[in-house]
Amino acid sequence: MQTRTLKTAKIKITTKCNRKCDFCIFAAGGQGVNMPVADFEGILARLEAIPFRQLHINGGEPTVHRDFGELSTLARHRFTDRTMVLGTNAITLARNQPLLEATLAHYDQVLIGCDDEHGNYDEVAAVLPQLRAAGKTVVVNTVLEAADAARITALAALCAEYGAIHVTNHVHHIDVGQPQNMLGGLCDRYLDQHLMIEVDGRAYRCFNAMARYDSEFSVWDDDLADKVFAPRSQHYRFCLKCHEYRDSGLQVIPAPAVPTRTASAH
């Protein structure tokens, strides 16, 4: 039987950001911290023991990390066969040519949050054509509670013009009036496994999890590779309000299958 593979290994390289969106729990504005280069290199080395398909660099706003270019180069050179993904608001990419060049050199996909909270419509309009001209996959994500119909229509048109993807979603992680999810089993997204790594190495197995009290283990644990795919039976605390929660019906997400060895004939 085939063993499981992570879809995403996501590293939060900074909690600094050039915006302070009301709905965001991932950033601390200008008061955040950057992951040291040595720690980043160590995390990349730890990830070599785990099968995964894409490496997602995020924050905070990752491009405000003073060593963004160096970190991007280290990741690309370490994992030449993986898809490199950048999560950004694109503000610094529009204003800083070396940062844009580092993105063009090392990333395959660029995911951009764009709405009234980010206040980055002009920057996205400036950067998106350049990313697409370089053949990058670009996804623009708009929070529905933070943009009016005219803005959403304009973003959709911009993306259509240049061959980018425009998606919309509701606010994550906070109660914006939606009813609580009826949690029977576990979210079926656990089967499409993600590993999220905080600046200090705390780790989670959900694409959106970044709440300190929900950390399951650390990327620095000696048995990291075992913990990543260990059975899971508990919800994260934000699952009740997660807009993406889908009930798999499973009470325990299984560990990966262990291949059966066949005795050699003599």
Explain what the structure shows.
The chain is α/β, with parallel strands linked by helices and 266 residues long. It has one domain (6-241): Alpha-Beta Barrel (TIM Barrel). The chain is built from 7 helices and 9 strands; from the N terminus they run E-H-E-H-E-H-H-E-H-E-H-E-E-E-E-H. The chain has helices spanning 37-47, 68-78, 91-95, 97-106, 121-133, 149-162, 224-228, and strands at residues 6-12, 52-58, 83-88, 109-113, 137-143, 165-169, 194-197, 202-204, 217-218. A 9-stranded mixed β-sheet has the order 6-5-4-3-2-1-7-8-9. Helix 6 (149-162) links the parallel strand 5 and strand 6 (165-169). Helix 1 (37-47) packs parallel to helix 2, helix 2 runs parallel beside helix 4 and helix 5 packs parallel to helix 6. Mean pLDDT is 89; it is low at 260-266.
Q: Major sheet, described briefly?
A: 9 strands, mixed
Beta-strand residue fraction: 15-25%
Do you know the CATH architecture?
Alpha-Beta Barrel
> What is the CATH third-level topology name?
TIM Barrel
- Unreliable residue stretches: 260-266
- In spatial order, strands of the major sheet run 6-5-4-3-2-1-7-8-9
| Helix coverage percent | 25-40%
In whole angstroms, the N-to-C terminal distance is 25 Å
- Helices, by number, come to 7
Order of helices and strands: EHEHEHHEHEHEEEEH
Morphology call: globular
CATH secondary-structure class: Alpha Beta
Tell me the number of strands. 9
What is the CATH superfamily label?
A: Aldolase class I
Q: Calculate the mean pLDDT score and round it.
A: 89
Specify the structural class: alpha/beta
